[in-house]
Design goal:
The protein is an alpha+beta fold. The protein has two domains: 7-88, 3-layer Sandwich (Rieske Iron-sulfur Protein), CATH 2.102.10.10; 118-275, Naphthalene 1,2-dioxygenase Alpha Subunit, Chain A, domain 1 (Alpha-Beta Complex). It has six helices and 16 strands. The protein has helices at 104-110, 129-137, 149-154, 224-230, 232-244, 263-275; strands at residues 7-11, 20-21, 25-30, 33-38, 53-54, 58-59, 66-67, 87-88, 93-96, 116-128, 161-165, 168-172, 177-181, 185-190, 193-201, 208-218. The longest helix is centred in the last third of the chain and has 13 residues, at 232-244. It is globular, with a radius of gyration of 19 Å.
């Protein structure tokens, strides 16, 4: 649907002590260098690793083939994992096809020098992930009688600072910010806390059906109470997932914001129109 869209693998701290298995890629470190591998064994293309997250070793369960942190084979001699290209910016976040801008959001995350990977959330939906991304960009939907009863008590949408760049939008409130890198990536930050969420379409040429992974990172100084509050980012995300599942027609890019709170929805719609290669004509009904 999109040619070489930006993707996110995680924060480099996730592979500080052990390899880290994501949905599509494996991150590892060797002599302070980050390595990135496809999460597919080159022998018979079986996915490496039973569970997402840190792992004690890089092993393909199908035939037991093992690899070291450089992708070299340990118990066989024919197959190795080839390194993939990536963009490691000032923030410490590992991207593909995205170069970080010079911006406040990059500086804030880059100052988090003691982040540690905590845990991940995963899920699946048969809904439309383009509608989901628009909802994530939409501040108008955060209102008193809307789908986010808790979020509305925490933030006033009219007092959120908005900014945008090439393929991304920025929303800053009094405790931190959200960044959306189109079309798959959502990053949230408050001091000492980082969330990295990524969408994985079931089929790259359709809008319907997707998985997601939300990675949570904390500075060790963050209290348990602060952790529990920050973990609500996943509850809010699932509320958006459920809302987007009710939108049963193919995604329609937005081009005429009726409120300043929809301005970034319009930016997203314009990005879709410029970058979309394949149109989906599916219609879903209840």
């Amino acid at each position: 649907m999109f040619k070489n869209p930006p993707k996110v693998i995680g924060h480099v701290s996730a592979c500080k002590n052990r390899p880290f298995i994501g949905y599509e890629y494996i991150m590892s470190q060797s002599n302070e260098k980050v390595n990135l591998f496809n999460r597919t064994c080159p022998h018979r293309f079986y996915p490496i690793g039973d569970q997402l997250g840190p792992t004690d070793n890089i092993t393909c369960k199908l035939h037991g083939f093992q690899y070291d942190n450089n992708g070299r084979p340990i118990n066989q001699h024919q197959y190795k994992l080839n390194c993939q290209s990536y963009d490691l910016g000032k923030s410490g976040i590992v991207f593909k096809n995205f170069v970080e801008p010079k911006h406040e959001w990059v500086d804030c995350i880059s100052n988090e020098t003691n982040l540690e990977y905590s845990h991940s959330y995963t899920g699946k939906s048969e809904g439309n992930w383009l509608w989901l991304t628009e909802i994530e960009a939409d501040l108008l939907h955060v209102h008193k009688d809307g789908i986010h009863s808790w979020l509305y008590t925490q933030y006033d949408p009219n007092n959120i600072f908005l900014d945008n760049g090439d393929g991304w939008i920025f929303q800053k409130q009094h405790t931190g910010f959200w960044v959306y890198v189109f079309p798959y990536i959502f990053v949230e930050w408050t001091p000492g806390c980082l969330s990295i969420n990524s969408i994985f379409p079931k089929n790259k040429n359709t809008e319907w059906g997707y998985s997601w992974m939300t990675q949570i990172y904390f500075n060790p100084r963050i209290s348990q109470e602060e952790r529990e509050i920050f973990n609500k980012v996943e509850d809010v995300f699932i509320e958006d997932v459920k809302a987007s599942e009710k939108q049963i027609i193919p995604y329609v890019p937005y081009s005429n914001a009726i409120s300043p709170l929809e301005y970034q929805v319009q930016i997203f719609g314009e990005w879709i129109k410029r970058n979309r290669l394949v149109n989906s004509h599916e219609t879903r009904f209840p």
